[in-house]
């Protein structure tokens, strides 16, 4: 009985691991058509705004702004920023420490909200995504599935809705304002920013320039090949 149970658990674990590997490999090549959050918002609102855009058609300053805002050491870690985690612990967990890779895993494969189950799955999938996807692919998917406002998903839809421009034509200030709303896209506005959002956008503009100068944007800046 115990031996049979062990075999069942082992087979279940192998099937789950194979399914996870397949899912990660598929989206390394094919664009995720929809996320769970998008589907939920479409049911709630009736429709959403979303259109995929390749990374090379996103303004470099937009890429840098998002990385500066959400994960300045994106090019330096393997999915988890240990320094940010330690800082979050020191701050009493009042600040987030999720990397762009972790957020991408959550958005594409899992669900929103806090739970130990989701965190455990996120911790298992994040290194797998880092192993199989390039940094450019991770950032591309993140920029296309992130929520920038109620019913607005992806940088292409956000750039057009809020500023009437293509993602490739975003200015440094516009890019910073879009990045500034990411922690709370349903309560912050890039076109009518409050004082806190304006301050955050100003800091993001400085941060985007800093990571350009010090080389921390190198892994996703080269449009001529995989970085």
Automatic annotation (TrEMBL):
Signal peptide coordinates: none
Protein name as annotated: Biosynthetic peptidoglycan transglycosylase
UniProt xrefs under Pfam families: Transgly
Residues in Glycosyl transferase family domain copies: 47-206
Record keyword Transmembrane present: yes
Task of the protein: Peptidoglycan polymerase that catalyzes glycan chain elongation from lipid-linked precursors.
One Gene Ontology term, aspect cellular component: plasma membrane
Native species: Meinhardsimonia xiamenensis
